[in-house]
Task: structure prediction
Amino acid sequence: MEEEEKKEQQETLKDESLFIRQGDTNDGYAEVIVSGDKKRVTAHFYPPIPGGAFLTAPTFLGKLADSGIVFGIDQEAVQAAVFKCNSTHEPLRDVVVARSQESVTEIPEHFMMRKEFLERKPEINPDAARIDWHTLSAFCIVNHREPLARRIPAVEGKAGIDVYGTEFPFSTEKVAPFLAGENVVETDKGLFAGKSGRLSISRDGLVSVEEVLELKKGVDFTTGNITFPGDVILRGKVADGFKIYAAGSIVTSEVLDVTDVVCKKDLIAQSGIEGGSKGTLRVGGNLTARYIQNCRVAVRGDITVTGSIVQSKVYSMGTIRMGESGKLVGCEVIAIGGVQAHEIGSSHGAKTRVRCGTDFTVQQELDISNEQLKVLALKIQRAEEMYEEEALPDIAAHIAELKAKKAEIIARIPAVLPRIDRNDGAYVEVGGTAYPGTEIEICHVTYELKKPEKQVRFVLDKTRGQIVTEPLKAER
Result:
């Protein structure tokens, strides 16, 4: 049936021809072709043979009207063609003598999404000497109030008129039906992001901004590095070398392999954290993990680890609490509040340092200043040795510049020192054993263990200026 209908359609759309003569067969004439859709009329004009009469424009136009062609006639084109054919005695072909009035397509009111959101591809710099594939992201992240789509007003449809003066219907343009979904605001101008997050467009055109980014397969080359303005849920592993930045919280059910992870709120690592000795983790809220291994961790809130912290540097502006079997082994730990652990150090004498009451951010600032002073001292020494060999003015100027930098850093240190010790009530509690090789420091007062100590609490005796031990109560 469909093939028969197509054949019928093709038959109805066949071009039609008619001939217009001035009089008898020797006179000038025209062959007129009407397109199958009745929207266009073209003509071939022929001069008379010797002794015949010329075809005139009134005759041509009159016979067009007699055949029913009454709309869109281009009389100037007809007159020009007839004149040229008659004056040159040469045939003139494919002259358009009538056109239809085209219909106006109806366009419903709709939203037009920004092209980069619909055709998003990872941006690659062709001029780059080496492409860092880690940075190519598969996600489209938008900011609060960012425009997503432009509102396109409706266009009213209008019927067309063919060359026979008959109306034909207008068509309606099909448009993608984009609609405002969660966290998307609809205005007179278009669609805007109501919050920062990941742009999501469903198959039926619902445009949403997701505040939570769920990574079911983890982070790898299919996702690129993650930079997200909300919460991130990791259900897979993080491949080596990939970075994560979340302005919200991070929750991961797999072991979190850290290269460089920044979390502005809380981080929960249900299966632990590993850094491969070079990994860096920064958390703006609290950190909860099963264990921490070979990682550098800085946390502004509290740290809760049910298992062990091994071969890591862990800094907290709150309190570090370990589980009933929690161990600190081969670590450097700094916490303003205190540390609670089952064991510190090991029977093999692993060096473990626990510092409490100290603001690690200030300590880092002080450490950087001290390192800079060491570098400057070495540079000054070398420059002075060069000056002794040859007293050039530029070497003297360089020495003066280095000494000025050194003096500036030295002058800055006294302002930093009063801020470093924040809590002289800090403590270290050990529910099991603290082994020799462990160094405990509270507000820069040091206590080094020479023998195992069990179920003990280390506190600062401010009157004597030394760390003392107390028996640990049954309940911590």
